[in-house]
Design a protein that fits this description.
The complex is a heterodimer of chains A (about 100) and B (about 240). Chain A is mainly α and about 100 residues long. Chain A has one domain. In chain A, helix 4 runs antiparallel to helix 5. The longest helix of chain A has 19 residues. The two termini of chain A are about 35 Å apart. Chain B has about 240 residues and is mostly helical. Chain B has two domains: about 160 residues, no CATH class; about 50 residues, no CATH class. Classes of the chains: A mainly alpha (about 100), B mainly alpha (about 240). The interface between A and B is large, with 70 and 99 residues.
């Protein structure tokens, strides 16, 4: 089981680099691939903030949405991973403490 | 990743940068890997097995799913199917690193190091590649450090598993979302990037809402990425 899970998780990561690196990718494909990263991060941010438990949660009780707003502001302002993490984690810790959740 | 560090864009990234870039990722993995170790131990998996799972697969969501299905007495085939779905998005991630790695990192090494490709290492590396050339050393520093963090936190969690039932909340749960948020901001240089990100976010949540199973397996990210990147290209051409 561990080996099969390992294969399922590793092959999609390894194969593209192993196979595609030999060939020159056509320009339109390269252009499309250059938008993959922003799209992936848009999707990951949305899921991790608005569906932290695997289900959509737009309720005020979803503390991640409250931590997200200051973290986003700090990210735009400082462009620093460190300050964004500090803000997000700090705000969530304070909310957890005062709301007792 | 501050502005001061962008002095010499032509320089290749050293090993040291890879390791320091991985530190916030390790911070984010700590609670997740630790919680996985605790859960695995509570499901009856040995410390050795739990650690081997993190060593050999390095798939947070996939490992949680495996434990969940094992606990519910599900079939191994179900675990494998779910893992194929969860990890399919890495096909797209990995393919999009190729134009950067080509001619800079030897393909066999690049492929081997892509073992350590995760949502987080991918996002951090792609942000770097905007301004710097990738190197084998950087990729090794970043991916291996992140992986060691994942393995180490799993081991700690599995060892502590006998004493802890609930990992508790110290705000660390927001480490990864905060990281995604910042990397997202760094990725958006032009309006088409923003449109790609927003389109992907909306598609992802809508798909997850309509088909809840895709949210749990994270396969909604695949559809969202395809639609988001396509909208980015189209809006780039029309503007």
């Amino acid at each position: 089981m561990i080996i099969a899970v390992s294969a399922a998780s590793l092959l999609p990561r390894i194969l593209p680099v192993a196979l595609l690196s030999r060939h020159q990718l056509p320009a339109p494909v390269k252009r499309w691939l250059s938008f993959v990263a922003p799209a992936v991060l848009g999707a990951l941010t949305a899921v991790s903030v608005f569906a932290p438990d695997g289900r959509l949660d737009f309720s005020p009780g979803n503390l991640y949405t409250w931590a997200f707003l200051p973290a986003l502001l700090v990210a735009i302002k400082t462009r620093s991973l460190f300050y964004t993490l500090l803000t997000g984690i700090g705000v969530l810790a304070i909310l957890n403490r005062f709301l007792g959740i | 990743m501050t502005n001061q560090e962008r002095t010499d864009p032509k320089a290749g990234l050293p090993l040291q940068t890879g390791i320091t870039d991985a530190l916030p990722i390790v911070l984010g993995y700590l609670p997740l890997g630790f919680a996985f170790g605790v859960l695995a131990k509570n499901t009856g998996i040995t410390v050795f097995q739990a650690t081997m799972m993190s060593l050999l697969s390095f798939t947070g969501a996939g490992q949680y799913i495996a434990i969940g299905i094992l606990k519910a007495g599900g079939a191994v085939a179900t675990i494998i199917m779910a893992n194929i779905l969860v990890n399919l998005r890495y096909l797209l991630f990995s393919a999009s690193t190729v134009p950067y790695l080509k001619d800079r990192v030897p393909p066999p090494l690049g492929a081997l190091l892509s073992y350590g490709l995760t949502d987080e290492t991918y996002a951090v590396a792609m942000t770097r590649y905007r301004n710097y050339y990738p190197t084998t050393a950087y990729l090794a520093g970043l991916n291996i450090t992140a992986h060691l963090g994942w393995i180490g936190s799993t081991l700690l969690g599995a060892l502590a598993g006998n004493y802890i039932a609930d990992t508790g909340e110290l705000g660390l749960g927001f480490a990864l979302p905060a990281m995604y948020t910042c990397l997202l901001v760094l990725m958006i240089e032009r309006r088409p990037h923003l449109r790609a990100a927003v389109a992907a976010a909306v598609t992802c949540l809508a798909t997850g809402y309509l088909f809840p199973g895709t949210m749990e397996s994270l396969s909604n990210i695949i559809l969202a990425t395809i639609i988001g990147a396509t909208i980015g290209v189209i809006s780039d051409q029309s503007s």
